[in-house]
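A protein record pairs a chain with a discrete description of its three-dimensional fold. The following entry can be read in just this way.
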Amino acid sequence: MSQGTPAIACIGVIGRHNNPLHIATFPPGQRDELEFQFLLSSSLDIFEQRLPDQSADHDFGLLQALDERIAMYGWVTNTGVKIVIIIDMEGKPPDPNANRYSNVLGVRESDLKPAFRAIQTAYIRLLRNPFYEPDDHSPRSLNARHTHGSLQINSTQFINEVDRIGRTWYPGVQAI
């Protein structure tokens, strides 16, 4: 039985108030999104536990390995927004045309830095949009104004960029 290569199974962007801003699963529609919401929620405890000891580097590395197939990695922005990438170690089927040395057996934490940086860049572009109000996606501001709005990011440009990152990432990629 041939093993697949590691692939991104889920990307989660979590607000500074621990509210999910965006969740994308890969391949779209073929995974149980509720399961990944639960996994993303469980990562918040790990962020809170490690946050006081964190240095200037925003890379939290491996948050937890759920089993031999699924692992969660984390990153925090300067504004406290958390980015979680869940990796499926057998996410992509093996390529029969690739040479025998191209199959990767694991993921190094440094393999994910280009993906984290690309997601952070997409989020910064979203924040630079004059029509995007980040406080509109905060549960505290919605409760204070007694309004009912979406807490999710609904920018198609941001959503498409996160989807592109999730589809194109592979171990060893230098830039996305």
